[in-house]
Amino acid sequence: MQVKRGFASDNNAGVHPSVMDALLSANRGHAVAYGDDAYTEAAVRLFRGHFGERAEVFFVFGGTGANVTALAAVTRPHHAVVCAETAHINVDECGAPERFAGCKLAALPTPDGKLRVEQIEPLLAHSGDQHRVQPRVISVSQATELGTVYAVEELRGLAEFARARGMLLHVDGARLANAAAHLGAGFRELTTEAGVDVLSFGGTKNGMMYGEAVVFLEPRLAEDFKFVRKQAAQLPSKMRFVAAQFTALLAEDLWLRNAEHSNRMARALAAGLARVPRIKITRPVESNAVFALMPREAVARVRERFFFYVWDEQTSEVRLMCSFDTTEDDVRELVNVIAEAVGGNEGKDEV
């Protein structure tokens, strides 16, 4: 069945051909299970090249598994994890962090998906109070669920704040590649050098079939992680197939080319939609996401051709995601379909 490329999620995209080739290559012969293989060793070396030689790297199946196990490894049940209200761990993980780690999420409202130090400070007023959960981790998404990106200085400020108060900084990096491409920065600059303690690093949204990594940039935090990962059912037995994909992604900067392309398609989409009457771009386009207000009557008509999500039903704000395989023709066709649905031809064929 032929399925049209859509704009609902970068999870909907297929597998990059180079990643598929790596999977096929890893499928030859046998390899020792559970990570004691040459593929995993090679991938870990690449991660350390990007994040620093002290990085401890562990592969897992998916993004929720990465976030949950990372947080469980560095918290106890009386702790709290501070995050944005829009954070994936708060909205889209079905309570898994709280159930598995046993700690509380302290979700704060943000206009742009980004936490700020001044918001977090009041939560520490009851440090040491046995009646209150104790904030232990600041968790940020990079890029955020609203498509915005933390500057290096913003991350460094959060890390310094956390360290001064005995807290840790966790980054949900499901789209870290898109953030790095937007900033023109390397992974080390965005994480290790900024003071990040633990990272959930994404591959699925950037051309892989499946698989994410938990990267401890402060090695002492990884001491018991292999047990946490196993208890969480996140230990891949045939780990070579996750590792081989990351090798393809990281070895020759495929991660960067994929992210730059999806970001560029998002900018093109936003530019096209900005010329369509009754469509309003609502958020800065800093990664591969475009948010826009679309008339309710137009949403159903556009969905007949392209699937996407309505982000806010009350305001009819939609989210349109670009992927590594989104083409200029895809973008042009979507803009044309939206222009027709809202009853105007302005903006058509101008991408």
Q: Which key phrases capture this entry?
A:
single chain, 351 residues, alpha/beta, Aspartate Aminotransferase, domain 2, Aspartate Aminotransferase, domain 1, 2 domains, 7-stranded mixed beta sheet, 4-stranded antiparallel beta sheet, 14 helices
What is the fold's blueprint, element by element?
Elements: H1 17-26, H2 38-51, E1 56-60, H3 63-74, E2 79-84, H4 88-91, H5 96-101, E3 104-108, H6 117-120, E4 134-141, H7 152-164, E5 168-173, H8 176-183, H9 187-190, E6 198-202, E7 212-216, H10 225-231, H11 240-251, H12 254-273, E8 280-281, E9 289-293, H13 296-303, E10 309-312, E11 317-321, H14 328-341
Helix pairs in contact: 1-11, 2-11, 8-12, 12-14, 13-14
Report on the structure:
This protein is α/β, with parallel strands linked by helices and 351 residues long. The protein has 2 domains: 31-251, Type I PLP-dependent aspartate aminotransferase-like (Major domain) (Aspartate Aminotransferase, domain 2, 3-Layer(aba) Sandwich); 254-341, Aspartate Aminotransferase, domain 1. 39% of the residues lie in helices and 16% in strands. It has 14 helices and 11 strands. Strands 1-7-6-5-4-2-3 form a 7-stranded mixed beta sheet, with helices on both faces. Strands 8-9-11-10 form a 4-stranded antiparallel beta sheet. Strand 4, helix 7 (152-164) and strand 5 (168-173) form a beta-alpha-beta unit. Helix 1 packs across helix 11, helix 12 packs parallel to helix 14 (328-341) and helix 13 packs across helix 14. The longest helix has 20 residues, at 254-273. It is globular and about 60 Å long. It starts with 16 loop residues before the first helix and ends in a 10-residue tail after the last helix. The mean pLDDT is 96.
